Prior knowledge:
Largest interface: A-B, 66 and 59 residues
Number of helices of chain B: 6
Order of helices and strands of chain B: HHHHHHEE
Distance between the termini of chain B: 44 Å
Oligomer: heterodimer
Number of helices of chain A: 23
Strand content of chain A: under 5%
Radius of gyration of chain A: 22 Å
Strand content of chain B: under 5%
Radius of gyration of chain B: 21 Å
Order of helices and strands of chain A: HHHHHHHHHHHHHHHHHHHHHHH
Amino acid sequence: MIAMTSAVFVVMIVLLFMGFPMKIPLTAATLAVLLVFYGGEVHPAIVVQQWIGGITPAALVAVPLFVFAAEIMTRGQAADRLLDFVMSLIGNLRGGLPIATAVSCTLFGALSGSTQATVIAMGGPMRPRLIQAGYSPSFSTALIINASDIALLIPPSIAMIVYGVVSGTSIGELFVAGIGPGLLMLILFSVYCLFVSNPPANEAATLPRLQKLRSLRRALLPLGFPFIVLGGIYTGIFSPTEAAGVCVLYALILEAFVYRELKLDDLLRCALSTGLVTAVVFTLVGAGAAFSWVISFAQLPQELVSNLLGLNADSGYWSIMLSICLAYFIGCMFVDPIVVILILTPILHPIAIQAGIDPVLVGVTVTLQVAIGSATPPFGCDIFTAMAIFRQSYWQVIRGTPPFIVLLLLVAFLLLLFPAIVLAPRDWVFK
Amino acid sequence: MVAGVLTIFLLINANVFCRFVLGFSLAFVGEVNEFSIIAITFAGMAYATNQARHIRMTAIYDVLPFAWQKSLMILIHLSTLFIFILLFVFSLRYVQAVHQLGGIYPATRIPYSAVYSLAPAGLFLCIVEYLGVLIINLKEHQLYLATSITQEPQTHVKLEEDS
């Protein structure tokens, strides 16, 4: 057992650090366990069965749809209009520019559900403005990638969909429960921005009230997205997956017919790019599902949890929740969030439920840790997106992140201390 | 792949419309969405390989000298190729087994094996791509990430000085 556990982790970590594409360490470890330790006992074709099984739950259909909606809006005008609106409101205050960046990222998160799309849509235009206003490139980049993580907690959220599918938690309830911690993150980031901000003289001049109203009117239609997602799910008109479909339709109508920006050519390009992003994510989901099956088959999770961590249902709220936080946080430092959710959830979720902890609280805590992990070195998908978009080296991107990680861990701590941040909105809507 | 994305989008909306306005649901929507997801994933996997769009941890890779990067990349392509060949063989076996069991999707009456055979098809395209890039890298001096994509020389040199 010890030989197998160490073999699995050594294979994964070595391949990961050598720069192999993410899916390979997972698949190599899966095949190693099957062929070396269970040669002949189980047919390795089970790996392919698990891949297909992993990507076909109906709720996962929401993922390409939310990505598609985000693609359409990133190419169209919705993103710019939102940005103009937020800038006209607070761009001229002290720390206005970085705070406006954080607010815009949150708002775009409410439209798109994808951190990478948020980094692209909001980071692209905001970063040059921040640097022009005298903020250091490392601060600007760190602010953008961390504020984009708020998108994971603000509904719709792809991480929450995957978590809901794996653990059987209501995706609708997770969506509502994520709003509290998402806003808390925004507030803490804004306070931090106030402290590090340049004097307001550097930033935009005050705008007349008429212009503010005008930019509100221009942003009114894009601001309708959260109402479709949340409203549709809560009135029971459609499921979260269908909400995603309706979002695409809304984005399409907005960009193609109202703003008349999007041509058929653009639409096809959006679909292609959506397919690519979806394939990259789902390849990981499939590989993660196969890996998760193999380690469960080998009973590694039970071994790790009960013997190594000494964790069981009687361990109490704090030790269970802290273990969950730690496990997901460390996991996300090395592997893609989706993979971490797929692997760790079947191990840790049942213990938390047995101990009587609210599944929605567990889900939001996990999503928060995953969000922190996405921007935490050494491995964070936001870091890689930022590297690609801003043409920065790995080290330049991560230089400014530590203060934000401290703030995010503070949010995680507050969440555990006051679960009402998560549960009160959920109870208010659903009970 | 484009067709898959558009299909899902159209069907989901058609289903909401039917249920909410006309009062009935379309039974085949779930199944066709499942086909589309499988198609997008495996076709997209091949396309992503062709475009060198992988999620990788490049912290160590980035600081290595070019010759090391090139050798490492050849090693990565070689072992990835090996793993994909294994996966391809296993997926063929799996499709064969499903075919022998002879199950079909209830609403559309399409055999499971027909849909699942997209997996070996996608994996095969990946194998072709990895084989191609491996051969090019062994022949040429430049570093190829995919058959049509070269690594920009020293992307990690300072593009923007931090203040």
